[in-house]
Specification:
The protein folds into two domains: about 1-65, no CATH class; about 70-205. Helix content is about 80%, strand content about 0%. By secondary structure, the chain is mainly alpha-helical. The protein contains seven helices and no strands.
């Protein structure tokens, strides 16, 4: 595994315990401790995540391509939900997750010395998975937007629209925007898997 692969995979895997520890310490402590203590529990959770990385991250990175696909699917879901929450229900930024997902799958295919047909099949499957996850994210975002009475006025103010945003216009924006996002997610994932596979396979063949 080349340095760029191990570094990227290390960031992907290493951030999970840290983020999970921080959020767990934060949210779990809310019902049980005074408000002034919540940040201390969050920092404690973050520190535990760092310790987990110190003990296990090197092994995880070394065995990354041997992990079962379900592990990586869960990690992708973790980041998808985190991205959705961090950007307050706006699904546009979830498209960025196509980058690490495609990068990893391309590297894994090159590591397995998959042929071109197998690569394209796996790239399509990966694109279908990431797009399906984004579809769920878009559905959740649309539900929030359509059930909120302030969404239309917020959109009108944000983009300084000259017309009033009616429920029909709002629904049209959601549908058109969602379709565009899903198409971009599928295309980006497929292309990044394809490019990463070609790059890493070339690097391994000349190594």
């Amino acid at each position: 595994m080349r340095k760029i692969e191990s570094a990227t995979i290390g960031v992907i895997l290493g951030a999970v315990p840290i983020i999970a520890g921080f959020l767990s310490g934060w949210w779990i402590s809310i019902p049980f401790v005074p408000e002034s203590w919540i940040s201390k529990f969050a920092i404690t959770g973050l520190a535990i995540g760092v310790l987990v990385d110190l003990f296990f991250l090197k092994t995880w990175v070394r065995n990354a391509y041997s992990m079962k696909p379900i592990v990586w699917m869960i990690i992708y879901l973790f980041y998808s939900i985190g991205m959705f929450g961090f950007f307050m229900g706006i699904p546009v930024f979830n498209i960025a997750l196509a980058l690490p997902a495609g990068f990893f799958m391309g590297g894994w295919l090159a590591y397995a010395r998959a042929d071109s047909n197998q690569m394209k099949k796996t790239a399509r499957q990966s694109a279908l998975f990431t797009t399906s996850v984004l579809a769920l994210i878009c559905f959740a975002s649309a539900t929030i937007a359509l059930t909120s009475t302030s969404t239309a006025s917020e959109l009108q103010h944000m983009f300084r629209l000259p017309i009033r945003v009616t429920p029909a216009i709002l629904l049209g924006i959601i549908l058109c925007g969602g379709i565009i996002l899903l198409f971009l997610q599928w295309w980006l994932t497929f292309k990044i898997v394809e490019r990463a596979y070609a790059y890493f396979l070339h690097e391994r063949l000349i190594k």
